[in-house]
Amino acid sequence: MYARCGRIDLGHLVFSTMKERDSICWNSVITSCSQNEKPEVAIDLFQSMGMKGAEYDPVSISAALSACSNLSALHYGKQIHSFMIQSSFNPDIFAGSPLIDMYAKCGNLDLAQHVFDTMESNNEVSWNSIIAAYGNLSHLKQCLALFHRMQDEGFQHDHVTFLAILSAFGHSGQVEEGKCYFNFNIMTQNYGISPRIEHYACLIDMLGRYGRLEVALQVIKGVPFAPDAGIWGTLLGACRVHERTRSDQTTWLQLDS
């Protein structure tokens, strides 16, 4: 409760005053730190959890790997992976996907692919993780190949898959091709996915990153939702990057009251 309300300090205080702590208590405090921009604390707590004799489970492993991803701490991530191997803790779907994400964010796609290939089973989450791994590092060709392979092997694309694909086009600078994938008819009729505000935000980020500011504004005007501060902030940030910050340079940008 305290973590979800943004009071990590109070949550940690409650945890520190508990006389008995089981794995659920440890997982709660590790996850709250990992998800609230305190990855160093999450890793320290994960190590303390083992030293205190508490038993690790997929939740604690996943939270610690996410913390390593946020820090790009490959050394700690490899230690956790080594522990998983030594203790016969198989990288199942729940812990395997964060392991893929950790290796990818630390720049090691070979190990990310190895984890994916050696998982006993995969689902949409693990497929999305490996697709995003290649996309975030601008390997668009491999990303699209995995996108089609995912469907060929009987897995359904979801809204996260399309976010990963849009991000891949953005990182690779393939703006026009990315716009083709972000097509309402293609997403809804071919895949049964209605574009969400996150997809529009990703498209606007892609357009803004490469100076297509007027097109990005038109996309915002056509969004079937009320544009939030995140979408406007993305466009305004692109204006700053492309030095369209003065009033005489941004007359095209008119915010509705």
Structural description of this entry:
- The protein is mainly alpha-helical and 257 residues long.
- It folds into three domains: 1-121, Serine Threonine Protein Phosphatase 5, Tetratricopeptide repeat; 123-195, no CATH class; 199-257, no CATH class.
- Helices cover 68% and strands 0% of the residues.
- It has helices at 8-16, 23-35, 39-51, 58-71, 74-86, 93-105, 109-118, 124-136, 140-152, 159-172, 175-181, 184-191, 197-209, 213-222, 229-241.
- The longest helix is centred in the first third of the chain and has 14 residues, at 58-71.
- The model has no long low-confidence stretch (mean pLDDT 86).
Weakly predicted, low-confidence segments: none
| Mean pLDDT score | 86
What portion of residues is helical?
Answer: 55-70%
Number of domains: 3
Name of the top-level CATH class of the largest domain: Mainly Alpha
Strand residue percentage: under 5%
Q: What gap, in angstroms, lies between the N and C termini? A: 36 Å
Based on secondary structure, the structural category is: mainly alpha
Number of strands: 0
Query: Can you count the helices?
Result: 15
